[in-house]
Specification:
- It is an enzyme of class 2 (transferase).
- The protein is an alpha+beta fold.
- It folds into three domains: 150 residues, Beta-Lactamase (2-Layer Sandwich); 105 residues, Orthogonal Bundle (Helix Hairpins); 151 residues, 2-Layer Sandwich (Heat Shock Protein 90), CATH 3.30.565.
- It contains ten helices and twelve strands.
- A five-stranded antiparallel sheet has the order 2-1-5-4-3, sandwiched between helices. A five-stranded mixed sheet has the order 7-9-10-12-11, covered by helices on one side. A two-stranded antiparallel sheet has the order 6-8.
């Protein structure tokens, strides 16, 4: 069942329940009040009846005539019976009433007055003591007007309930359609969405309510999905290209080698090329394994690791690989604040991250010096890696952390586009902030905040 129909059903059921309970309370209160009024009238008639039958010998003729006139007028169309203590009818209707039992007569004597209703018949009784004896004075009456009023009132309430249910169903259905119209529009838009092709956003009215918040969050999710899909596409495209290049080179070298007999020098030359391409392929696969490992598990941390010691290991390794590139290290910490150099980390992973970042600087610095600074930023250690190389455009900078993505101006420099991805993931897992700024032709500045 659709939410719109559920809302209509629930609101209708709630209205029906509330109206039914209210109508029942009103109806029973009305009937009870009307019956009480009728019983009060019967009570007055019962007193008048007792005086008419039992007080004649104690009144003057004039007083009795007045009582008789009132009695004959008030008790028309009503049955009157006076029972003595033995339960025999002493005055009034001679035939017995099956509804008046010995138990009821006893109740009348015990309570002095007693009223009850059986079907549509109303009874009111008093226990009257006189010099002639004590009698149970019982008046039996039928009130067709009251019964008709009750039936008519019940019909009005049932009609109002039926009309009210019809109105509330129609109103709830209309309001729910209006309320859920934006959702239906969104559903139609979602059905037509294809985030694998174009970046699309849902359009919705500015209602400033929870629905607008929901649609905003959904649009944000769509944007993230689109970005992730594009990253996956780029990953597959670049990965296939990076893996295919060394494989194609290996296959090509071996095909040329086997085409005819070669000299020993040619065999050695081709073997070196094959070995170089195989090492390149091995490095790509190794980086992919590192990246996959970073995605699936939390690194094992060790406390008390010195950032400067890890940095010196990186610089020693880079000196052997890039002997022509000068690296300047400046320790700009205040005196006595070497405590910020101590960090809880996975030293192997942090070594890889710093190595990749500084190697990038060396690789693209065009043999110009690299400046590395360790300084205090607030109460945190900040490392700045700055080169004066070829730089990177702002468009490429937006994709710099995507796997296998390489800038448009680095095609002649060897690499596979995984170093920055691995470094950013390692730093993210360690809670380390990374910022990169660059200007084409003026170099790159990397800020690492521990």
């Amino acid at each position: 069942m659709k939410v719109q129909h559920k809302l209509t059903l629930v609101s209708s059921l709630v209205f029906s329940l509330v109206f039914t309970v209210s109508s029942a309370l009103i109806y029973f209160n009305f009937t009870k009040s009307a019956e009480n009024i009728f019983f009060e009238e019967l009570a007055r008639k019962a007193s008048l009846t007792a005086m008419f039958y039992l007080e004649e010998d104690e009144m003057s003729s004039k007083e009795y005539k007045r009582i008789e006139k009132r009695f004959l007028t008030a008790t028309a169309n009503q049955e009157i019976r006076l029972y003595d203590k033995a339960g025999n009818i002493h005055f009034g209707e001679a035939d017995a009433d099956s509804n008046i039992t010995i138990k009821i007569l006893k109740t009348i004597r015990d309570r002095e007055s007693y009223s009850f209703k059986i079907d549509s018949l109303y009874y009111y009784a008093i226990y009257y003591r006189d010099n002639q004896g004590s009698f149970s004075v019982i008046i039996k009456a039928n009130n067709p007007t009251l019964n008709a009023q009750e039936n008519e009132f019940l019909k009005i309430l049932l009609t109002a309930l039926l009309v009210g249910i019809i109105v509330i169903v129609a109103l709830s259905y209309t309001l729910s359609r209006i309320a859920y119209q934006p959702i239906r529009n969104i559903i139609e838009q979602v059905k037509a969405l294809d985030v694998t092709r174009d970046r699309k956003q849902l359009t919705y009215p500015q209602t400033r309510d929870e629905l607008e918040d929901l649609f905003k969050e959904f649009n944000a999710m769509l944007d993230k999905s689109y970005q992730n899909i594009q990253i996956q596409k780029n990953f597959i495209s670049h990965a296939s290209h990076e893996l295919k290049t060394p494989l194609a080179a290996i296959v090509g070298d071996l095909e040329v080698l086997l085409n005819k007999e070669r000299s020993v020098a040619e065999y050695k030359s081709v073997s070196r090329d094959v070995l170089h391409d195989a090492e390149r392929l091995e490095k790509i696969l190794k980086n992919l394994l590192i990246l996959a490992d970073l995605e699936k598990q939390t690194p094992e941390m060790r406390s008390g690791q010195r950032i400067d010691e890890i940095l010196w290991e990186v610089l020693d390794q880079l000196q052997s690989e890039y002997p022509d590139t000068q690296t300047n290290l400046a320790l700009m910490l205040p005196e006595g604040r070497t405590d910020v150099l101590t960090f809880t980390c996975n030293p192997t992973q942090l070594y890889i991250a710093l190595y990749n970042l500084i190697e990038n600087a060396a690789k693209f610095s065009d043999r110009k010096p690299i400046d590395i600074t360790l300084e205090l930023a607030g109460e945190r250690l900040q490392m700045i890696i700055a080169d004066k190389g070829i730089g990177i455009s702002q468009n490429d900078l937006a994709h710099i952390f995507e796997p296998f993505y390489r800038g448009g101006n680095v095609s002649r420099t060897r690499g596979n586009g995984l170093g920055m991805t691995i470094s950013s993931k390692i730093l993210e897992n360690h809670g380390i902030d990374l910022q990169i700024r660059s200007t084409v032709g003026a170099g790159i500045t990397v800020r690492i905040l521990f």
